[in-house]
Protein backbone atom coordinates (compact mmCIF):
# COMPACT_ATOMS: atom_id res chain seq x y z
CA UNK A 1 0.00 0.00 0.00
CA UNK A 2 1.34 3.41 -0.96
CA UNK A 3 1.51 6.22 1.56
CA UNK A 4 0.40 9.85 1.07
CA UNK A 5 1.28 12.55 3.58
CA UNK A 6 -0.87 15.68 3.42
CA UNK A 7 0.87 18.74 4.85
CA UNK A 8 -1.68 21.26 6.10
CA UNK A 9 -4.31 18.62 6.71
CA UNK A 10 -6.58 20.97 8.68
CA UNK A 11 -6.54 23.73 6.09
CA UNK A 12 -9.15 24.31 3.42
CA UNK A 13 -7.60 22.04 0.77
CA UNK A 14 -6.43 19.54 3.39
CA UNK A 15 -10.01 19.13 4.60
CA UNK A 16 -11.22 18.60 1.03
CA UNK A 17 -8.61 15.85 0.55
CA UNK A 18 -9.61 14.36 3.90
CA UNK A 19 -13.22 14.24 2.68
CA UNK A 20 -12.40 12.10 -0.38
CA UNK A 21 -9.60 10.03 1.18
CA UNK A 22 -11.94 7.10 2.04
CA UNK A 23 -12.50 6.60 -1.73
CA UNK A 24 -8.80 5.69 -2.11
CA UNK A 25 -8.07 3.77 1.08
CA UNK A 26 -7.86 0.38 -0.66
CA UNK A 27 -4.61 1.46 -2.32
CA UNK A 28 -3.39 4.42 -0.27
CA UNK A 29 -2.73 5.19 3.37
CA UNK A 30 -3.20 8.86 4.23
CA UNK A 31 -1.32 10.73 6.94
CA UNK A 32 -2.65 14.21 7.68
CA UNK A 33 -0.43 16.71 9.49
CA UNK A 34 -0.87 20.24 10.78
CA UNK A 35 1.71 22.72 12.08
CA UNK A 36 1.46 21.19 15.59
CA UNK A 37 2.30 17.72 14.27
CA UNK A 38 4.91 18.91 11.75
CA UNK A 39 6.40 22.40 11.53
CA UNK A 40 7.75 22.55 7.98
CA UNK A 41 9.98 25.51 8.88
CA UNK A 42 11.97 23.08 11.08
CA UNK A 43 14.27 21.21 8.68
CA UNK A 44 15.26 18.56 11.22
CA UNK A 45 11.65 17.82 12.11
CA UNK A 46 10.75 17.42 8.43
CA UNK A 47 13.62 15.01 7.79
CA UNK A 48 12.77 12.94 10.88
CA UNK A 49 9.11 12.77 9.88
CA UNK A 50 9.96 11.52 6.39
CA UNK A 51 12.49 9.05 7.78
CA UNK A 52 9.86 7.61 10.15
CA UNK A 53 6.92 7.56 7.69
CA UNK A 54 8.57 7.03 4.28
CA UNK A 55 5.71 8.46 2.16
CA UNK A 56 5.43 7.75 -1.57
CA UNK A 57 3.68 11.09 -2.13
CA UNK A 58 3.69 14.39 -0.26
CA UNK A 59 0.87 16.87 -0.93
CA UNK A 60 1.83 20.30 0.35
CA UNK A 61 -1.54 21.90 1.04
CA UNK A 62 -0.08 24.27 3.63
CA UNK A 63 0.78 27.91 3.01
CA UNK A 64 0.97 31.35 4.54
CA UNK A 65 -2.01 32.88 2.70
CA UNK A 66 -2.64 36.22 4.45
CA UNK A 67 -1.99 38.33 1.36
CA UNK A 68 -2.24 41.74 3.05
CA UNK A 69 -0.55 40.74 6.32
CA UNK A 70 2.37 39.31 4.34
CA UNK A 71 3.40 42.88 3.49
CA UNK A 72 4.24 43.33 7.20
CA UNK A 73 5.22 39.72 7.92
CA UNK A 74 7.59 39.09 5.02
CA UNK A 75 9.91 36.88 7.06
CA UNK A 76 7.02 34.69 8.22
CA UNK A 77 5.59 34.38 4.70
CA UNK A 78 8.97 33.32 3.26
CA UNK A 79 9.60 30.92 6.16
CA UNK A 80 6.47 28.92 5.29
CA UNK A 81 6.06 29.50 1.55
CA UNK A 82 9.73 29.25 0.54
CA UNK A 83 12.01 27.79 3.23
CA UNK A 84 9.38 25.31 4.41
CA UNK A 85 8.84 24.15 0.83
CA UNK A 86 12.59 23.71 0.40
CA UNK A 87 12.67 21.48 3.50
CA UNK A 88 9.84 19.36 2.09
CA UNK A 89 11.50 19.16 -1.33
CA UNK A 90 14.81 18.07 0.20
CA UNK A 91 13.10 15.38 2.30
CA UNK A 92 11.17 14.23 -0.78
CA UNK A 93 14.40 14.05 -2.78
CA UNK A 94 16.19 12.10 -0.03
CA UNK A 95 13.35 9.61 0.41
CA UNK A 96 12.34 9.29 -3.29
CA UNK A 97 8.96 10.89 -2.63
CA UNK A 98 6.85 12.65 -5.28
CA UNK A 99 6.05 16.20 -4.15
CA UNK A 100 2.72 17.75 -5.20
CA UNK A 101 2.99 21.40 -4.25
CA UNK A 102 0.14 23.92 -4.49
CA UNK A 103 1.00 27.43 -5.68
CA UNK A 104 -0.92 30.48 -6.85
CA UNK A 105 -1.87 32.75 -9.73
CA UNK A 106 -0.34 35.60 -7.68
CA UNK A 107 3.09 34.69 -9.11
CA UNK A 108 1.94 36.81 -12.10
CA UNK A 109 1.59 40.60 -12.17
CA UNK A 110 -1.77 40.53 -13.97
CA UNK A 111 -0.70 43.08 -16.56
CA UNK A 112 -2.18 41.26 -19.56
CA UNK A 113 -5.37 40.77 -21.54
CA UNK A 114 -4.54 37.11 -22.18
CA UNK A 115 -4.44 34.00 -20.02
CA UNK A 116 -1.13 32.92 -18.53
CA UNK A 117 0.49 29.68 -19.61
CA UNK A 118 2.80 27.69 -17.34
CA UNK A 119 5.83 29.02 -19.24
CA UNK A 120 4.90 32.69 -19.09
CA UNK A 121 7.07 35.23 -17.31
CA UNK A 122 6.41 35.47 -13.58
CA UNK A 123 6.50 38.85 -11.87
CA UNK A 124 4.72 38.91 -8.49
CA UNK A 125 3.66 42.33 -7.21
CA UNK A 126 3.37 41.49 -3.51
CA UNK A 127 5.22 39.62 -0.78
CA UNK A 128 2.76 36.71 -0.81
CA UNK A 129 3.30 36.12 -4.54
CA UNK A 130 7.08 36.58 -4.17
CA UNK A 131 7.24 34.00 -1.38
CA UNK A 132 5.13 31.49 -3.34
CA UNK A 133 7.28 31.93 -6.46
CA UNK A 134 10.44 31.35 -4.41
CA UNK A 135 8.86 28.16 -3.07
CA UNK A 136 8.16 26.97 -6.62
CA UNK A 137 11.76 27.63 -7.69
CA UNK A 138 13.25 25.87 -4.67
CA UNK A 139 10.97 22.84 -5.04
CA UNK A 140 11.84 22.41 -8.72
CA UNK A 141 15.58 22.91 -8.10
CA UNK A 142 15.81 20.48 -5.19
CA UNK A 143 13.45 17.66 -6.17
CA UNK A 144 13.03 16.71 -9.87
CA UNK A 145 9.97 14.63 -8.91
CA UNK A 146 7.86 17.72 -8.21
CA UNK A 147 4.44 18.61 -9.59
CA UNK A 148 3.42 22.22 -8.97
CA UNK A 149 -0.26 23.10 -9.26
CA UNK A 150 -0.99 26.81 -9.51
CA UNK A 151 -4.56 27.57 -8.54
CA UNK A 152 -6.67 30.64 -7.82
CA UNK A 153 -9.42 32.12 -5.63
CA UNK A 154 -9.92 28.94 -3.57
CA UNK A 155 -13.12 28.43 -1.60
CA UNK A 156 -15.03 25.50 -0.08
CA UNK A 157 -17.30 24.65 2.82
CA UNK A 158 -14.22 24.56 5.07
CA UNK A 159 -12.24 27.28 6.87
CA UNK A 160 -12.24 30.98 5.91
CA UNK A 161 -12.79 32.02 2.29
CA UNK A 162 -14.58 34.55 0.09
CA UNK A 163 -17.80 32.53 -0.29
CA UNK A 164 -18.27 32.02 3.43
CA UNK A 165 -17.38 35.66 4.12
CA UNK A 166 -19.95 36.85 1.57
CA UNK A 167 -22.71 34.61 2.97
CA UNK A 168 -21.97 35.95 6.44
CA UNK A 169 -22.02 39.57 5.24
CA UNK A 170 -25.23 39.01 3.26
CA UNK A 171 -26.96 38.09 6.53
CA UNK A 172 -25.71 41.29 8.21
CA UNK A 173 -25.75 43.98 5.51
CA UNK A 174 -28.29 45.40 3.08
CA UNK A 175 -25.63 46.73 0.72
CA UNK A 176 -22.02 45.85 -0.14
CA UNK A 177 -19.33 47.19 -2.46
CA UNK A 178 -17.26 44.59 -4.34
CA UNK A 179 -14.24 45.11 -6.59
CA UNK A 180 -15.21 44.69 -10.26
CA UNK A 181 -11.95 45.28 -12.15
CA UNK A 182 -9.85 42.33 -10.96
CA UNK A 183 -10.19 39.16 -13.04
CA UNK A 184 -9.46 35.58 -12.01
CA UNK A 185 -10.89 32.08 -11.73
CA UNK A 186 -12.84 31.07 -8.61
CA UNK A 187 -11.92 27.48 -7.73
CA UNK A 188 -13.75 25.04 -5.52
CA UNK A 189 -11.06 23.39 -3.36
CA UNK A 190 -12.98 20.11 -3.64
CA UNK A 191 -12.29 20.15 -7.40
CA UNK A 192 -8.59 20.80 -6.72
CA UNK A 193 -8.51 17.90 -4.25
CA UNK A 194 -9.99 15.58 -6.87
CA UNK A 195 -7.50 16.81 -9.49
CA UNK A 196 -4.59 16.11 -7.13
CA UNK A 197 -5.81 12.56 -6.54
CA UNK A 198 -6.28 12.02 -10.29
CA UNK A 199 -2.64 12.99 -10.78
CA UNK A 200 -1.42 10.76 -7.95
CA UNK A 201 -3.42 7.75 -9.16
CA UNK A 202 -2.50 8.20 -12.84
CA UNK A 203 -0.30 5.55 -14.44
CA UNK A 204 2.24 8.08 -15.69
CA UNK A 205 3.80 11.06 -13.95
CA UNK A 206 4.70 14.23 -15.80
CA UNK A 207 6.59 16.54 -13.46
CA UNK A 208 6.72 20.31 -13.66
CA UNK A 209 4.24 23.19 -13.41
CA UNK A 210 0.52 22.89 -14.19
CA UNK A 211 -2.38 25.31 -13.89
CA UNK A 212 -5.65 24.14 -12.36
CA UNK A 213 -8.77 26.16 -11.60
CA UNK A 214 -12.41 26.31 -12.51
CA UNK A 215 -13.24 28.36 -15.61
CA UNK A 216 -13.86 30.84 -17.25
CA UNK A 217 -12.55 34.07 -15.76
CA UNK A 218 -14.77 36.44 -13.83
CA UNK A 219 -14.48 39.36 -11.39
CA UNK A 220 -14.93 39.45 -7.62
CA UNK A 221 -18.11 41.46 -8.24
CA UNK A 222 -19.62 38.87 -10.61
CA UNK A 223 -18.49 36.11 -8.24
CA UNK A 224 -20.31 37.82 -5.36
CA UNK A 225 -23.42 38.32 -7.52
CA UNK A 226 -23.58 34.57 -8.18
CA UNK A 227 -23.16 33.80 -4.47
CA UNK A 228 -26.09 36.12 -3.79
CA UNK A 229 -28.16 34.51 -6.54
CA UNK A 230 -27.50 30.93 -5.39
CA UNK A 231 -28.18 31.83 -1.75
CA UNK A 232 -31.32 33.80 -2.71
CA UNK A 233 -30.00 36.88 -0.91
CA UNK A 234 -31.61 40.26 -1.48
CA UNK A 235 -28.42 42.18 -0.68
CA UNK A 236 -27.60 45.08 -3.00
CA UNK A 237 -24.13 44.76 -4.55
CA UNK A 238 -22.28 47.80 -5.89
CA UNK A 239 -19.26 47.55 -8.17
CA UNK A 240 -16.04 49.22 -7.01
CA UNK A 241 -12.72 49.92 -8.71
CA UNK A 242 -9.46 48.74 -7.16
CA UNK A 243 -8.68 52.41 -6.42
CA UNK A 244 -11.93 52.71 -4.44
CA UNK A 245 -10.99 49.70 -2.31
CA UNK A 246 -7.30 50.08 -1.41
CA UNK A 247 -5.53 47.19 0.32
CA UNK A 248 -2.02 46.89 1.83
CA UNK A 249 -1.02 44.39 -0.89
CA UNK A 250 -1.51 44.96 -4.61
CA UNK A 251 -3.55 42.33 -6.46
CA UNK A 252 -3.05 41.27 -10.09
CA UNK A 253 -5.63 42.94 -12.35
CA UNK A 254 -6.02 39.83 -14.53
CA UNK A 255 -4.35 36.62 -13.33
CA UNK A 256 -6.38 34.27 -15.53
CA UNK A 257 -4.54 31.00 -16.21
CA UNK A 258 -4.61 28.78 -19.30
CA UNK A 259 -5.78 25.26 -18.42
CA UNK A 260 -4.84 23.35 -21.60
CA UNK A 261 -1.73 21.60 -20.26
CA UNK A 262 -3.34 19.70 -17.37
CA UNK A 263 -6.23 18.68 -19.63
CA UNK A 264 -3.88 17.47 -22.36
CA UNK A 265 -1.39 15.60 -20.15
CA UNK A 266 -3.53 14.34 -17.26
CA UNK A 267 -6.94 14.39 -19.01
CA UNK A 268 -8.37 16.52 -16.20
CA UNK A 269 -11.28 18.65 -17.41
CA UNK A 270 -11.89 21.71 -15.22
CA UNK A 271 -15.48 22.50 -14.27
CA UNK A 272 -17.37 25.72 -14.89
CA UNK A 273 -16.99 27.90 -11.80
CA UNK A 274 -20.71 28.66 -11.55
CA UNK A 275 -21.61 24.96 -11.31
CA UNK A 276 -18.98 24.30 -8.64
CA UNK A 277 -20.02 27.41 -6.74
CA UNK A 278 -23.68 26.37 -6.71
CA UNK A 279 -22.71 22.98 -5.25
CA UNK A 280 -20.71 24.66 -2.48
CA UNK A 281 -23.42 27.21 -1.61
CA UNK A 282 -26.00 24.42 -1.39
CA UNK A 283 -23.76 22.52 1.05
CA UNK A 284 -23.21 25.63 3.16
CA UNK A 285 -26.95 26.40 3.32
CA UNK A 286 -28.00 22.87 4.32
Describe the structure.
With 286 residues, the protein is of the alpha/beta class. Helix content is 38%, strand content 18%. The strands form four sheets. It has a six-stranded parallel beta sheet, sandwiched between helices. Strands 6-9 form a two-stranded parallel sheet. Helix 1 crosses helix 6, helix 3 runs parallel beside helix 4 and helix 7 crosses helix 9. The longest helix is centred in the first third of the chain and has 21 residues. The mean pLDDT is 97.
N-to-C span: 36 Å
SSE string, helix = H, strand = E? EHEHEHEHEEHEEEHEEHEHH
- Strand line-up in the sheet with most strands: 2-1-3-4-5-10
Mean pLDDT: 97
- The residue ranges in which pLDDT falls below 50 over 5 or more consecutive positions are none
Number of strands: 12
| Helix fraction by DSSP (H/I, runs of at least 4) | 25-40%
Gyration radius (Cα, Å) is 19 Å
How is this structure best summarized?
The chain is of the alpha/beta class. The chain is built from nine helices and twelve strands.
How are the secondary structure elements laid out?
Elements: E1 2-7, H1 12-20, E2 28-33, H2 43-53, E3 57-60, H3 74-94, E4 98-104, H4 127-142, E5 146-151, E6 154-155, H5 162-170, E7 175-179, E8 183-184, E9 187-188, H6 189-201, E10 208-211, E11 218-219, H7 220-230, E12 236-240, H8 260-266, H9 273-284
Parallel strand pairs: 1-2, 1-3, 3-4, 4-5, 5-10, 6-9, 7-12
Antiparallel strand pairs: 8-11
Helix pairs in contact: 1-6, 2-3, 3-4, 7-9
